[in-house]
Design a protein that fits this description.
The protein is of the alpha/beta class. It is built from 17 helices and 36 strands. It has a six-stranded mixed sheet, with helices on both faces. It has a six-stranded antiparallel sheet with strand order 13-12-15-20-17-18, with no helix packed on it. The chain has a five-stranded parallel sheet with strand order 1-2-3-5-8. Bound molecules: beta-D-glucopyranose (BGC).
C-alpha cells in the first residue's frame, strides 16, 4: 500500500518527525509504529554487504575493492556487480547499501585510495552510474559517498578541503552529479570533512543549491557516521538523517531548537518527508519489517567475483614470461605471505566477513596437479604485529577495574575484538573491563614481537610480567577509525617451543570516552635474513618463481593515510634477490594504491591484482596461467616516486596545515598533473597489457565540424591479430587546443572495452556530448565549450596514442548550471 506521506507527516508530532531524523542504532532508522512507519536497515558497502555485525558476523560475499572494480573499465560488468550487491544487501535484511565510494584519487597516500574508483572523474562516474543502476535495479537504494572532498584521511573528522570552484565542478562533483542525473541515486552520504571551512553535513550551498536545486536530487542525504556536528545547521542545509543513532545532535536538542525558534518546523518536516520517501522507495511500507540476516553463499556471485578479479587485474609488464605454462614435474617457487594468506580486501568500514578466501597457492595447486609448488614467506608485509588465530578466553566485568562478578564469559577464535554497539546483553556497553587469556607457543626460535592496539585501555602480561602497556599514557591515535591508540610493541627472543601464557587486561575507562571499543593483540616471529635466503634458494632451484609482494588491509585502510609508497619491510630486497637468483620471476602485486617498484627493470613480468575479494587466489591463478585475460587497465597513474605526486612537498597541499588542505593544483590531478608538469610516470593512466595483440583501424569522426549543442560520434575498428581471445580497452581523450584558460592537454571522455576472439574485429564507439568539450566557467557559473579547435586522441593509455583528429566547434556553447 502506498502511504500518503503528507498525511503521515500531518499526523506526526514534532517529536515523532524529529525522531525520524536520526538512526535508532548503528544501522537502522527509527520506526513510528503508531502510524505504521517501519524501520529500514542500511549496510556497508562498497565491496560487499556486511550486515549489522561489524566483525565476525554472518558471512557474506566479498567482491573486489573499488579500485579493482574500476580497473575493469567495464560498466556493463559493474552494473551486474551492483545488482549482485543489491541482492547481497537484501540477504542482510538491508534496503540501503552504503556505496559506491567515488571520491577521487588526489593523493596516492590516501588510506581509502583502494575504496575509491579512480583519479579521473569520467572513469569514476561511468562506473559509479553503472554501480548505482545495478544496485537500484534490485529495489535497494545506493548511497553515493562521501559528498564531497573527502579525499584523504589525515584529521579526517575535521579537515577542511579548500577546493577551487572550477576543480570542484570539473572533477570532484562529477561522479555525484552523474549518479544523480543519470542513475537517480536514492541516497547521498556527506563526508566527514569540511568543504571550504563548513562541515559537509551543514553545507547549505552543497546540499541545497548544488545537489537539490541544480541537479534535481530528490533523495535522502545522510551524515557519515558521527560526522554530524550541529543541531540546527545540518537540518537547515538538508542533511536529513543523522547516523548512526541514537541521536546525538538531534532528538530532544532539535525539538528544543524548534521550540526556541532557531529553525522552522518546516525544515524538520522537509527532512522527515525525505526519510519517509526513502522508506517508501525501497519498499519499506509495502514489506515492513527487517528480515533476519542470511549467509547464503551464491554460486553465481562466486563466479562473478572470480571474473571481476581477472577483469580488474592489470598486467603492468610482460616480457613474454606470462602466461605461465608449468609442465608436469616442474617446480614453481611461490614466495611471499600473500601466496598463502589471501589479501582479499582493504580495511575499515568496507571490511566484510567473507564466506571464504581462496589463497593463490591452493588455487594454483588445484589447477596444476602435476606441478610442485613450494612456498616461502620471505619478508613481512604487515603494518601491525599480526593477530593470532588462536582461542582466547574472555571474562567481562561491569566495572572499569575488574571488580565485581564476572558477568559474561566468551571464547573467541582470534585476538582481535571489535565492540561496536554491544558486547553482550549482560555487559554494560560503555563501561566494562575484560580479562583475556591465551597461550602462545613459539613455533620457531627467533626474535618475536608482541603488541597491543586498543580503543580502550589495555595491557598484556606474559608469564606474569607486564610486557605490553597500552594502559598508562593511553591516548587516541590512528587506529580504529581514530578511536584506538597507536600500536605499542614489545620484543623478546624465544626458543622453539617456548610457551608464553598471556593475560590481557582491557578497560573502557579511557580519559576521553570512545564510541567504539576494540582490543587487538599481536604476536609473531620477525622474518629476517634467513627467511629471505631460504626464499632465494627455493627460487634458484625452481623453474619459475612468483613473488607476491604488496600491502595489506592495515595499510590500505580507512582512518589513516600511508606515509610513503615504499613497499614495507624487506620486500624490495626480497624481489631483487629472487630475480637475481632466477630471471624467470613474476611479481604479483597486491596493493590498493601505487607503490615504488625499484626492481622493475630486472623483473620480466609484473601483475597488479589489487584486492580481488574472496576468489583472490582463483582469479590470480586464472590470469597467471592464462585461462583468463588480464582485463584491467590502471585507473590511477602509477608514479615513479612519491616526489612526483600531487601535494608532495607542501604541507598545505597535503596533508594540510591548521585544519585546511588546499587544492591549489586545481584541475591538475592524476594524469592532468603529470602532463602539465611534464613528469613521466612509471605507468601511465589507462595502461595495461593483454595476452593477445590488437591492430587498430583508422579513427573515424562522423563530422569534424560541430555545432553547439550537437554530438560527436567517433569510431575505431579493433582487430585481434593474436592467437587467443583478449580484451582491448580503447580510450578517448579530448584536448582543447586554443582555450582562453589553462586546460589539461588530454581529458578522458570515453572508453570502450572490447572482448574479441582470435581473428575477430570489433568497433569501439564513442558518443561525445557538449560537456565532453566544456570547462566550468566560474564567473558565468556555466559549462562552456569555446568555439574553435579541439583534439580527439584515441589510445591504449593516456600516453600510448593510436590516432588523433581535429575538429572545430562553430560557436560557443554555454550551459548555465
Ligand atoms: C565511513 C563510511 C561508512 C560508515 C558506516 C564511516 O566510517 O566513512 O564510508 O559507510 O562509517 O560504517
Amino acid at each position: 500500500m502506498t502511504p500518503n506521506i503528507e498525511s503521515l507527516l500531518d499526523q506526526m508530532t514534532l517529536e515523532e518527525q524529529v525522531g525520524l531524523l536520526a538512526g535508532a542504532d548503528f544501522w537502522t532508522t527509527v520506526p513510528v509504529p503508531r502510524l505504521g512507519v517501519p524501520a529500514i536497515k542500511v549496510t556497508d558497502g562498497p565491496n560487499g554487504a556486511r550486515g549489522g555485525v561489524f566483525k565476525d558476523g554472518p558471512t557474506t560475499a566479498c567482491f573486489p575493492v573499488g579500485i579493482a572494480l574500476a580497473s575493469t573499465w567495464n560498466p556493463a560488468l559493474i552494473e551486474q556487480t551492483g545488482a549482485a550487491l543489491g541482492t547481497e544487501a537484501k540477504l542482510k535484511g538491508a534496503s540501503v547499501l552504503l556505496a559506491p565510494t567515488v571520491n577521487l584519487h588526489r593523493t596516492v597516500l590516501n588510506g581509502r585510495n583502494f575504496e575509491c574508483h579512480s583519479e579521473d572523474p569520467w572513469l569514476s562516474s561511468e562506473l559509479g552510474v553503472a554501480y548505482v543502476r545495478g544496485v537500484q535495479s534490485t529495489g535497494v537504494a545506493a548511497t553515493i559517498k562521501h559528498f564531497v572532498g573527502n579525499d584523504s584521511e589525515y584529521q579526517r573528522m575535521s579537515m577542511s578541503s579548500d577546493i577551487p570552484e572550477r576543480a570542484l565542478r570539473e572533477l570532484y562533483l562529477l561522479p555525484f552529479e552523474r549518479a544523480v542525473k543519470e542513475a537517480g541515486v536514492m541516497a547521498v552520504m556527506t563526508g566527514y570533512n569540511r568543504l571550504d571551512g563548513i562541515f559537509a553535513a551543514d553545507h547549505q550551498r552543497l546540499l541545497q543549491q548544488v545537489l537539490r536545486d541544480e541537479w534535481g536530487f530528490t533523495g535522502l542525504v545522510m551524515s557519515d557516521w558521527m560526522g554530524l556536528h550541529s543541531t540546527v545547521e545540518g537540518v537547515l542545509a538538508g542533511c536529513d538523517l543523522e547516523m548512526p543513532g541514537p541521536a546525538v545532535e538531534r532528538g530532544a536538542k532539535l525539538v528544543q531548537a524548534v521550540k526556541d525558534g532557531l529553525l522552522p518546523a518546516d525544515a524538520v518536516r522537509a527532512c522527515a518527508r525525505r526519510v519517509l520517501q526513502l522508506i517508501e522507495r525501497v519498499g519499506g511500507f509495502a514489506n515492513p519489517g527487517i528480515p533476519a540476516e542470511r549467509a547464503d553463499d551464491l554460486p553465481a556471485h562466486r563466479a562473478l567475483i572470480r571474473r571481476l578479479g581477472a577483469e580488474g587485474a592489470v598486467l603492468l609488464k610482460n616480457d613474454g614470461l606470462l602466461p605461465l605454462a608449468p609442465k608436469a614435474g616442474q617446480t614453481v617457487a611461490l614466495i611471499g605471505i600473500a601466496a598463502v594468506t589471501p589479501q582479499a580486501m582493504g580495511g575499515g568500514s568496507a571490511t566484510v566477513n567473507a564466506h571464504y578466501r581462496i589463497a593463490p597457492l591452493a588455487a594454483l595447486q588445484a589447477q596444476c596437479p602435476g606441478t610442485t609448488f613450494t612456498h616461502h614467506a620471505g619478508a613481512d608485509i604487515h603494518r601491525y604485529v599480526p593477530v593470532l588465530n588462536t582461542p582466547m578466553q574472555l571474562e567481562f566485568f561491569n566495572s572499569l577495574d575488574f571488580s565485581g562478578p564476572v558477568v559474561c564469559r566468551q571464547t573467541v577464535h582470534n585476538t582481535e575484538q571489535l565492540w561496536i554497539d554491544t558486547v553482550d546483553a549482560a555487559v554494560t556497553a560503555d563501561a566494562f573491563s575484560a580479562r583475556a587469556t591465551l597461550r602462545f607457543v613459539a613455533a620457531e626460535a627467533g626474535e618475536h614481537q608482541f603488541s597491543l592496539v586498543s580503543a580502550g585501555l589495555s595491557r598484556a602480561y606474559i608469564n606474569g610480567d607486564l610486557a605490553v602497556d597500552a594502559w598508562s599514557g593511553w591516548s587516541r591515535g590512528d587506529t580504529y577509525f581514530t578511536f584506538g591508540c597507536n600500536e605499542v610493541r614489545h620484543s623478546r627472543s624465544l626458543a622453539q617451543g617456548q610457551v608464553c601464557e598471556v593475560v590481557i587486561e582491557f578497560s573502557t575507562g579511557t580519559p576521553e570516552s570512545t564510541p567504539i571499543h576494540a582490543l587487538r593483540f599481536g604476536a609473531y616471529r620477525v622474518l629476517g635474513e634467513a627467511d629471505i635466503a631460504a626464499a632465494v634458494e627455493a627460487a634458484r632451484h625452481a623453474d619459475v618463481a612468483v613473488v607476491f609482494a604488496g600491502l595489506n588491509a592495515e595499510w590500505d585502510n580507512e582512518g589513516l593515510d600511508r606515509s610513503g609508497i615504499t613497499l614495507p619491510h624487506s620486500q624490495n630486497a626480497l624481489v631483487a634477490r629472487v630475480v637475481a637468483a632466477n630471471p624467470r620471476t613474476v611479481v604479483v602485486l597486491q596493493t590498493g594504491s601505487p607503490v615504488a617498484l625499484p626492481w622493475l627493470a630486472e623483473v620480466p613480468a609484473v601483475l597488479q591484482a589489487w584486492y580481488p575479494g574472496q576468489e583472490c587466489g582463483n582469479a590470480i591463478a586464472d590470469v597467471l596461467l592464462g585461462t583468463a585475460e588480464p582485463g584491467g587497465r590502471l585507473p590511477q597513474t602509477w608514479p615513479l616516486q612519491l616526489q612526483d605526486t600531487v601535494g608532495f612537498g607542501n604541507a598545505r597541499h597535503y596533508p594540510g596545515v591548521d585544519g585546511h588542505v588546499v587544492y591549489d593544483e586545481g584541475i591538475f590531478i592524476g594524469y592532468r598533473h603529470y602532463q602539465q608538469k611534464n613528469i613521466a610516470p612509471l605507468f601511465p593512466f589507462g595502461h595495461g597489457l593483454s595476452y593477445t595483440q590488437f591492430q587498430y583501424g583508422a579513427l573515424r569522426l562522423a563530422s569534424t565540424a560541430l555545432q553547439p549543442g550537437g554530438e560527436l560520434l567517433v569510431e575505431m575498428e579493433v582487430h585481434n591479430v593474436g592467437p587467443r581471445a583478449g580484451q582491448a580497452v580503447v580510450q578517448l581523450y579530448v584536448g582543447d587546443t586554443r582555450a582562453s584558460l589553462p586546460r589539461p592537454a588530454q581529458e578522458l571522455k570515453g572508453f570502450a572495452k572490447l572482448t574479441l576472439a582470435a581473428g575477430e574485429t570489433g568497433t569501439a564507439r564513442f558518443r561525445l556530448g557538449m560537456r565532453a568539450f566544456a570547462f566550468f566557467d566560474v564567473a558565468r557559473a556555466a559549462w562552456v565549450a569555446e568555439a574553435g579547435g579541439y583534439h580527439v586522441h584515441v589510445g591504449t593509455s593516456v600516453d600510448a596514442r593510436l590516432a588523433s583528429a581535429e575538429l572545430t566547434l562553430a560557436a560557443d556553447w554555454v550551459q548555465p548550471v
